[in-house]
Amino acid sequence: MTGSVGAPAERREGREKVAGTARYAAEFHTPGRAQGWPVPAAVARGRVTGVDTAAALAVSGVLAVLSHENAPRLAEPDDPTLAVLQNARVPHRGWFVALVVAETLEAARAGAAAVRVTYEAEEHDVALSVSHPGVYVPEEVNAGYPAVQDRGDPEGAFRSAAARVDVAYQVPPLHNHPMEPHTSTARWEDGRLTVHTSSQGTDAVRGVLAGLFEMARERIVVTAEHVGGGFGSKGTPRPDVVLAAMAARETGRAVTVALPRRFLPSVVGHRAPTLHRLRLGAGEDGRLSSLVHEVTTHTSRIKEFVEQAAVPARVMYAAPHRRTVHRVAALDVPSPSWMRAPGEAPGMYALESAMDELAAELGMDPIGLRVRNEPDVEPDSGKPFSSRHLVECLREGARRFGWDGRDPRPRSRREGSLLLGTGVAAATYPVKVWPSAAAVRALPDGTFLVRINATDIGTGARTVLAQVGADALGVPLERVRIEVGSTELPWASLAGGSGGTASWGWAVDTACAELSRRLAEHPGPLPEQGLDVRADTRGTADVESAWARHAFGAHFAEVAVDTVTGEVRVGRLLGVYAAGRILNARTARSQFVGGMTMGLGMALTEGSTMDAAFGDFTESDLASYHVPVHADVAEIDAHWLDEEDSRLNPMGSKGIGEIGIVGTAAAIGNAVHHATGVRLRELPLSPDRVLTGLLDRRVRGAV
To answer: How confident is the model at residue 39 (pLDDT cuts 50, 70, 90)?
Structure first.
């Protein structure tokens, strides 16, 4: 072993990104390349009755205008959101009804503004409520979980509990907003299609395009050399890649379609709003007897996607009587989809806030309450945990944060107009692993080339996989080169679910370990072309585990609440994680801190509003949808335990990309309650909501 794994190795693509030479999907310049600009629907429901393109075609530089009247016919996709320009139906506002292709981006944009579309509008409904008449219980929710799980008699146990909490929480629609918008460049040549796209998985893109255009997968090459973030929204193909391929075939040119940021909320998915009801019943000793988590959310009318927000309650705490249920209403809204830590982020916000309320009801320390309800096995499946060090995370976090010196009484700390408070929350995220393939070649010059169609979406996958390969080969890291991000490489799973490195690393480790064995047996010098080994983890990585595999963490927050302005400032954020073997200390810390920052945004600044009259998201760009910046947190730190877990994969690693967001919002919300004595149950905790809560408290005479 060389000790490469675990070392804080610098990112291999870092210099390219700093120097501006890293190429993203819009930056593959070819002679004659054209630009496409979509035209979004201006009604929330209805059908297109006419598309007048005369003025658009008269714009200098415009080459074509595609609509349902003249666009290439596609095979019916499995994902209805990709059936763009195929018929006159408008399922929601922002649905693309035309695409203008022009010599320049400016001409395409001007042409799109000149297209005149007429509609036959229909009444629409975009308002979600628990009592909506269209609410139903689906068969399953995202990731294939059953929508309902029942254990014991939760209603009876709740009624007889010594301490009870019955509360409702609300999480608004949230948007992914990666720095690089969804972009694709496509060109056809001799019946072959080449696509550069901003995607979390190019093998999936190639498969979808092959189906839509009814052609062999082998005649399509898809690359994602560099990707400027995705956070789930690029986990499946989006309309940009379909429009680019259609336009390129129609015009005979390479075509780039870079979706304007204001269009993204309507066409690339969003975190659906979730309405939560939590009922917790416990004995006087704090042990849970009943746990009921009910979630209501929305989906579109063309594609069912149900956020699995009650699923975390099935695995977190020991409660003999439990019920978790998901309900959904199909509305005239854009189709929701994955957003970082789908299910866990909103679900754990509600659960961990309710646990804080139960601790207050019992007069217990919030950490002590969580420790008391630590399960011996996973409550949902009954499987033993491969490893679960949540208690250690809580205790180590408490030590680092100075929790023992905390006065538990709300409003016990004040500095002028500022009320100060601290809060804690737990976090969990499942360990996910999928099969992948990798190839490695030993070259006569003593170097090694690892090839795998992994996607580096900004997480440092190139670097970490090279470290895994170096250790398996027993050579220094600098002797290992790596190629990722193309369907011309051995196939691999997508970058999502915090399962990318675990999945790809398994294949890389297997291939490199086998090559090391062959090299030990190889007589004499290597042939000029080198020695190759390929590994495929189908049949091993996808075998159902006898263990419940999860990462865990504990989040701590300190806040200052301004009683004059209602502003919440986070002074400190701390995360302590048990996430298996950490493969690169530098990139891991970056991922943890990035997730915590995203959780900070979820708690304080991020939130979207569905306009009932227009059927559109009001906050559709970064001027109105506020993501956090450096100045929004004074101190943020991440630590992890040295967790050994041999029941995961050859590296002993767990995913780290998403667990950082999971408990952050609840920790901040709990800290705001500790500071003010006011429990705010709707995110984000914006100044207007904080001031309203403080005013209500004064009106009730609580000061």
So the answer is: very high
User: Is the distance from CB of 507 to CB of 436 less than 8 angstroms?
Assistant: yes
Respond yes or no: is residue 521 known to be catalytic: no
Give 703's pLDDT tier (boundaries 50, 70, 90). very low
- Rounded to an integer, what distance in angstroms lies between the CA atom of residue 394 and that of residue 352? 13
CA pair distance 445, 447, nearest whole angstrom: 6
- Given a cut of 80, whether residue 123 has pLDDT beyond it is yes
Provide mean pLDDT across the span 428-441: 98
pLDDT at residue 324, rounded to an integer = 98
**Three state DSSP letters for 3-63:** CCCECCCCCCCHHHHHHCCCCCHHHCCCCCCEEEEEEECCCCCEEEEEEECHHHHCCCCEE
Distance, in Å, from the CA atom of 311 to the CA atom of 245, rounded to the nearest integer, reads: 38
Distance (Å, whole) CA 83 – CA 94? 14
* Phi, psi (deg, nearest 5) at residue 200: -90, 0
Q: Active-site residue among 294, 606, 619, 658?
A: 658
**DSSP classification of residue 548:** B
What is residue 701's predicted lDDT score, i.e. its pLDDT?
73
User: Token pair of 525, please?
Assistant: 């010098």
pTM: 0.97
Distance CA(309)–CA(349), nearest Å, equals 10
- Whole-angstrom Cα distance, residue 456 to residue 111? 35
* Strand-pair partners of 65: 100
Asked whether the predicted pLDDT for residue 241 surpasses 50, the reply is yes
Q: How far apart are CA 614 and CA 73, in angstroms?
A: 30
The mean per-residue pLDDT over the stretch 166-178 comes to 98
- Across 346-374, average pLDDT: 98
Residue 22 backbone dihedrals phi, psi, to 5 degrees: -70, 125
Other Cβ atoms within 10 Å of 677 Cβ, number? 18
Tell me the pLDDT band of 388, cut-offs 50, 70 and 90: very high
Q: What is the largest CA-CA distance in the chain?
A: 88
Q: How many residues does the chain have?
A: 703
Q: Write down the mean pLDDT value for the chain.
A: 97
* CA–CA distance, 180 with 227 (Å, rounded to integer): 7
Q: Do 489 and 610 form a contact (C-beta atoms < 8 A)?
A: no
pLDDT for 512 beyond 60: yes
- High-pLDDT (> 70) share of the chain, %: 99
E-state strands within 198-254 = 220-223
Phi, psi of 460 (to 5 degrees): 90, 25
Q: Quote the tokens at residue 424.
A: 């804690």
- Cβ neighbors of 622 (< 8 A, separation 6 or more) are 177, 261
Q: How far is CA 585 from CA 6, 7, 11, 638, in A?
A: 6, 6, 11, 11
d(CA 593, CA 638): 6
> How is residue 194 written in tokens?
């080449």
pLDDT interval class at 702 (50, 70, 90): low
Q: Which two tokens stand for residue 17?
A: 């990104």
pLDDT band at 77 (very low <50, low <70, confident <90, very high): very high
Which tokens is 613 given?
Answer: 């009259």
d(CA 155, CA 195): 55
Rg (CA), the chain: 26
DSSP string, 334-399: PPP---SSTTHHHHHHHHHHHHHHHHHHHT--HHHHHHHT--SS-TTT-PPBS---HHHHHHHHHH
Rounded CA separation 417/561 (Å): 8
Structure tokens given for 646? 């041999």
